[in-house]
C-alpha cells in the first residue's frame, strides 16, 4: 500500500474510534484480535459518549466524506435492519449534510459559467436548498425566461477525497485477493473497480445532466415518473441547472397522508418503475434514496414520483437481463429447480454444482417469503441466509449486478415506508410475464425482423454476388477436399504395403535365427535371413513421405 493510502486508513480508524464506533459492536461478537488491535490504539478514545449510537455513526460518516455518506444513505432506508432512531439520524445524510460556504459556491458557479451569476440568474439564494455528500443546491430564477431553477454545484475538493478513498478500497481489495488466493468467489477488486467507474461518473455533473435527459425522454408519457427539465447549455462538469419542481419528500409519510395520497398505488408504481427501467429501457436510476425521490402534490389519488440526481445510472447486458427476468419469474412461480438451473447456465455457480442440493437450499431461503406483505418479511435475515448459501455453493459475486442489488434494497426500503402491506410478488409478476412474452414470443420475433429490415434492404443489391461467390467457394472447397482425400488414401495404401513388408521381413529374420540355433540345414536359415533383409529394404523404401495437407 502507498503512504497516502496508509495515511487515509489511519484517518478512517482515528475518526471511527473518535466517535466510539467500536463501542457499538457487542462484546460477545468481537473477535480477540480486534480487541488486541483496539488496545494497541489506546490513545484514540471515544470523545462523544454523551451522544446516542445513531448520531455518532452519522457524525463519523459526515467527517469521513462522500463514500461513507453514501453508505449511510443506503442504510437509512433499511428500517428492517435499523431502529427508527438510527434510521432517522442516518436519513439526515440524504440532503442535510452540513453545507459549505456560499462564497465558495458562488465562485465555483461563476468559474463554470465564465461570467457573473447576475448575467444569467436573478434572485440567487445564498442559503442552499439542500446539501448532500457530493454537491449542494441553490435556487434562482432564470433571467432569460423567468423560470424557477436550481443550481447544483460540486463540493470543493470532493474529487480528491473520493479518489483517496477509492484508492484505499482498491488496495485493500487487492490485499484480500492475495490472501484469499485462487479460491476467491467474492472478487473484491472487480467490485471496487465497478464502484470506481460509478462514483467517478457521479463527479461529472455534465454526465448527470445527460443521464437525466435520457431518463426524462424514456418517461415523457408516463403517469408514474417525472424528471425535471435540464438546461443543457448551462450544464458543465461541476455545475448543472435544472427546472425547479415542488413535491413532498417520499420519506415524509405524514405529509403524504395529510394530502390524501394513495400510498398503495404509489408503492405499486415504485415497483413497476424499477422493473420498467431495468427490463424495458435497460437504464435504471441506481441512487434512489429518499433524498432523491419526491412525490407530486397534484392529483394525490393518482400520484407520481419526481426523480432527482441521475448521477448513478445502471445498465445490464442482454444476457444478464434475460437471466434475471427468468430468475424472478421462476421465483414468483416457486420453481426452485429452474432457479438452480439458471444459476448454473449463467455461470454464477460452478457447472459441477449439485442441482438438487442447490434447489433445496434456495427453497429453504425463499419459501418463507411468499404470501406475506413487506412488513412481515425480514430482508436482513433473507440476505444473511443467501450469503450463507453462496458460501456453501461457492457462488461467485457478479460485480455488474452490485448496482442492481443496491437499487433493489432502496426500492424495498421505500416500499416498507410507504405501504408495508404491499404484495411485492403480485405487483411485479404481471410486468415480468408481459416482458418475457415480448422477448421470446411471436411479437418479439416480428419486432426483431422489423428492426433488421433496413439493414437487410441495404444488403439486398449485393445478395446475388454474395450467393455466387459462396457457391464458387463451396465448389472449390469440394474439389480441394477430394484432392486431399485421394492423397490421404494413397498414403494409407503405401503405409499398409510398407507395414506388410516390414512385418514379413521381421518374421523371416526370426525364423532364420531359430533355424540356425537348432542346427538345421544352414541354407534354409541363410535363405530366410536374406529374403527377410530384402523385404525389410523394400518396406523401408516404400514408406509414405507425409506432407502437409
From TrEMBL:
Its main location: membrane. It comes from Shewanella youngdeokensis. The keyword Transcription does not apply. Its EC number is 2.7.-.-. The chain crosses the membrane at residues 500-517, 523-540. Residues 93-341 form the ABC1 atypical kinase-like domain. This is Probable protein kinase UbiB. ATP binds at residues 129-137, 152. Belongs to the ABC1 family. UbiB subfamily. Belongs to the protein kinase superfamily. ADCK protein kinase family. It is found in: Cell membrane. It comes from the Bacteria. The keyword RNA-binding does not apply. It is a multi-pass membrane protein. The active site is at 287 (proton acceptor). CDD domains: UbiB. Pathway: Cofactor biosynthesis; ubiquinone biosynthesis [regulation]. Keywords: ATP-binding, Cell inner membrane, Cell membrane, Kinase, Membrane, Nucleotide-binding, Transferase, Transmembrane, Transmembrane helix, Ubiquinone, Ubiquinone biosynthesis. Is probably a protein kinase regulator of UbiI activity which is involved in aerobic coenzyme Q (ubiquinone) biosynthesis.
Amino acid at each position: 500500500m502507498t503512504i497516502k493510502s496508509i495515511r487515509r486508513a489511519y484517518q478512517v480508524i482515528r475518526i471511527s474510534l473518535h466517535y466510539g464506533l467500536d463501542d457499538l459492536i457487542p462484546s460477545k461478537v468481537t473477535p480477540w484480535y480486534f480487541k488486541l488491535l483496539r488496545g494497541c490504539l489506546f490513545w484514540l478514545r471515544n470523545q462523544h459518549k454523551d451522544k446516542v449510537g445513531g448520531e455518532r455513526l452519522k457524525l463519523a460518516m459526515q467527517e469521513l466524506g462522500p463514500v461513507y455518506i453514501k453508505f449511510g444513505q443506503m442504510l437509512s432506508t433499511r428500517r428492517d435492519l435499523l431502529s427508527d432512531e438510527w434510521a432517522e439520524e442516518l436519513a439526515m445524510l440524504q440532503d442535510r449534510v452540513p453545507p459549505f460556504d456560499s462564497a465558495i459556491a458562488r465562485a465555483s458557479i461563476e468559474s463554470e459559467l465564465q461570467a457573473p451569476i447576475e448575467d444569467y440568474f436573478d434572485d440567487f439564494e445564498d442559503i442552499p436548498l439542500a446539501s448532500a455528500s457530493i454537491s449542494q443546491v441553490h435556487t434562482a430564477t432564470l433571467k432569460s425566461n423567468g423560470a424557477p431553477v436550481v443550481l447544483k454545484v460540486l463540493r470543493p475538493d470532493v474529487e480528491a477525497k473520493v479518489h483517496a478513498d477509492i484508492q484505499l478500497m482498491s488496495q485493500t481489495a487487492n490485499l484480500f485477493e492475495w490472501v484469499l488466493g485462487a479460491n476467491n468467489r467474492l472478487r473484491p477488486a472487480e467490485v471496487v473497480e465497478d464502484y470506481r467507474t460509478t462514483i467517478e461518473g457521479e463527479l461529472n455533473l455534465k454526465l448527470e445532466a445527460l443521464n437525466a435527459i435520457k431518463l426524462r425522454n424514456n418517461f415523457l408519457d408516463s403517469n408514474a415518473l417525472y424528471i425535471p427539465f435540464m438546461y443543457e447549455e448551462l450544464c458543465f462538469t461541476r455545475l448543472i441547472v435544472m427546472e425547479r419542481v415542488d413535491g413532498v419528500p417520499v420519506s415524509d409519510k405524514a405529509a403524504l397522508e395529510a394530502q390524501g395520497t394513495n400510498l398503495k398505488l404509489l408503492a405499486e408504481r415504485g415497483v413497476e418503475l424499477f422493473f420498467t427501467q431495468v427490463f424495458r429501457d435497460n437504464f435504471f436510476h441506481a441512487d434512489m434514496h429518499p433524498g432523491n425521490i419526491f412525490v407530486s402534490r397534484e392529483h394525490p389519488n393518482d400520484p407520481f414520483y419526481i426523480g432527482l440526481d441521475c448521477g448513478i445510472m445502471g445498465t445490464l447486458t442482454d444476457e444478464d437481463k434475460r437471466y434475471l427476468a427468468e430468475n424472478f419469474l421462476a421465483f414468483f412461480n416457486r420453481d426452485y429447480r429452474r432457479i438452480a438451473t439458471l444459476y448454473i447456465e449463467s455461470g454464477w455457480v460452478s457447472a459441477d454444482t449439485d442441482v438438487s442440493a442447490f434447489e433445496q437450499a434456495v427453497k429453504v431461503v425463499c419459501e418463507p417469503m411468499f404470501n406475506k406483505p413487506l412488513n412481515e418479511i425480514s430482508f436482513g435475515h433473507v440476505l444473511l441466509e443467501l450469503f450463507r448459501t453462496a458460501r456453501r455453493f461457492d457462488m461467485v459475486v457478479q460485480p455488474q449486478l452490485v448496482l442492481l442489488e443496491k437499487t433493489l434494497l432502496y426500492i424495498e426500503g421505500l416500499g416498507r415506508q410507504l405501504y408495508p402491506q404491499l404484495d411485492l410478488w403480485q405487483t411485479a409478476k404481471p410486468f415480468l410475464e408481459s416482458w418475457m412474452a415480448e422477448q421470446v414470443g411471436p411479437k418479439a420475433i416480428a419486432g426483431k425482423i422489423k428492426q433488421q429490415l433496413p439493414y437487410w434492404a441495404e444488403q439486398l443489391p449485393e445478395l446475388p454476388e454474395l450467393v455466387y461467390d459462396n457457391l464458387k467457394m463451396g465448389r472449390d472447397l469440394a474439389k480441394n477436399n477430394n484432392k486431399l482425400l485421394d492423397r490421404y488414401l494413397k498414403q494409407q495404401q503405401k503405409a499398409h504395403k510398407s507395414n506388410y513388408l516390414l512385418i514379413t521381413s521381421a518374421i523371416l529374420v526370426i525364423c532364420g535365427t531359430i533355424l540356425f540355433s537348432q542346427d538345421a540345414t544352414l541354407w534354409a536359415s541363410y535363405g530366410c535371413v536374406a529374403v527377410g533383409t530384402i523385404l525389410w529394404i523394400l518396406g523401408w523404401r516404400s514408406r509414405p513421405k507425409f506432407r502437409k495437407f
